[in-house]
Design a protein that fits this description.
The chain is mainly α and 78 residues long. The protein has a domain at 11-40. The protein is built from 4 helices and no strands.
């Protein structure tokens, strides 16, 4: 069953959505419906086993700060 839905969206976004819909051969309604359908599904968890190397490195950077690493890289590449 199809029901009409009215949305208030910035005109720039509407133009982008229409252009994207045209490029993909879909209607804006189809794009919105597909997006809404994605909201129903729980996020997929990837059941990937870690390799021994990755497992050994897991948590190695815990307690470090991004700023420290950025500073290290800046000094290294001067």
């Amino acid at each position: 069953m199809h029901t009409k839905l009215t949305l208030r969206v910035e005109s720039v976004l509407i133009h982008r959505a229409k252009a994207f819909a045209k490029k993909t051969g879909k209607s804006v309604s189809q794009l919105v419906a597909e997006y809404f359908a994605l909201l129903e599904r729980p996020p997929k968890r990837r059941d990937v086993s870690l390799t021994p190397l990755v497992r050994s490195l897991k948590g190695a950077l815990r307690g470090t700060r991004v700023q420290d690493y950025r500073r290290y890289l800046e000094e290294k590449h001067r």
